[in-house]
Amino acid sequence: NAGVTQTPKFQVLKTGQSMTLQCAQDMNHNSMYWYRQDPGMGLRLIYYSASEGTTDKGEVPNGYNVSRLNKREFSLRLESAAPSQTSVYFCASAYTRLDEKLFFGSGTQLSVL
Amino acid sequence: SQQGEEDPQALSIQEGENATMNCSYKTSINNLQWYRQNSGRGLVHLILIRSNEREKHSGRLRVTLDTSKKSSSLLITASRAADTASYFCATVPGNQFYFGTGTSLTVIP
Q1: Which of A34-38, A41-45, A94-98, B58-62 has the lowest mean pLDDT?
Q2: How far, in Å, CA of A60 to CA of A64, rounded?
Q3: Which residues contact B55 (CB under 8 A, 6 or more apart)?
Q4: Which pLDDT does position A97 carry in this prediction?
C-alpha cells in the first residue's frame, strides 16, 4: 500500500498564480486533512473533511479552497497565491474513531515569489 | 489558537540519556497523541493516550497525561542518535487534530 500520496513534491509560483495540491489515500480512511507547516508555528490545520461529501474550515482557511472528490482524494486549491502562502503543505488521513491516528503524506514544498 | 505548545523548543542530550518534553493544551480532548518528524519528512505517529488514562508505555517511550492541568509529557529513555527529530503533540477534541509547535531533539553520539 502507498498510504498517503501527495503531488507535487515541490512547486514555485508567482504571486497571483493558481494551483491545486493533490492528495490521495488508499487506506479506506473517512477523514482527510490539510496542514501547513511554517518555522516556529508548528502545523496549522487549513481544512478538513470528516467524511466523503463534507468539508470544514480549520484554523487558517483564508486563501484556500478544498474539494473532497471521493473517499480517496482531497485536493487543496490556491486561487491566487500570495507570498504568505509559502510553506510546506501536508495532507493526512485517519479513520476518525476516537482512538485512531493520523497518517501523513511526504509534503509539498511551495514557494510563492 | 487551538494549538498546544511544547516545551522546551529545543533539547540537546548525549546518547544514552533520557529526553523529556512537555505539551500544554487549551481544549478538552478525547485523546492526545505524540508524533515524530525527521527532517524533510512527514509526521509519524508514536503513541496515543486517551483522556481517561494517566500513563502509557511503548518500548522506550513513556507518556503521561494530566487533564486537570491540560498537560502531557513524553519521556524517551536511553536515547539514540537515531532519535534526533522533532516531536509534536496533537490534541484531538473531536474530528480535528491540533498540533503543537514542536520540540527539536538532538541526540549527540
Answers
A1: A94-98
A2: 9
A3: B49, B62, B63, B64, B65
A4: 64
C-alpha cell at A22: 493533490
Q: Report the distance separating Cα B89 and Cα B65, nearest Å.
A: 11
Alpha-carbon distance of B64 to B67, in angstroms, equals: 10
Residue of chain A with shortest Cα separation from B103: A42
**Per the omega criterion (within 30 degrees of 0), is the bond before A8 cis?**
yes
* Confidence band of B96 (pLDDT split at 50, 70, 90): confident
pLDDT score for A1:
65
Is the separation of the CB atoms in B3 and B65 below 8 Å? Answer: no
Q: Tens of pLDDT along A78-90?
A: 999 999 999 999 9
pLDDT greater than 90 at residue A96? no
> What residues does A49 pair with on adjacent strands?
A32
List, in sequence order, the alpha helices (H) in chain A.
none
Residues 6+ apart with CB under 8 A from A24: A4, A5, A72, A73, A74
How far is the C-alpha of A102 from the C-alpha of B8, rounded, in Å? 24
Residues of B with CB under 8 A from a CB of A: 1-3, 30-31, 33, 35, 40-45, 48, 50, 88, 90, 92, 95-102
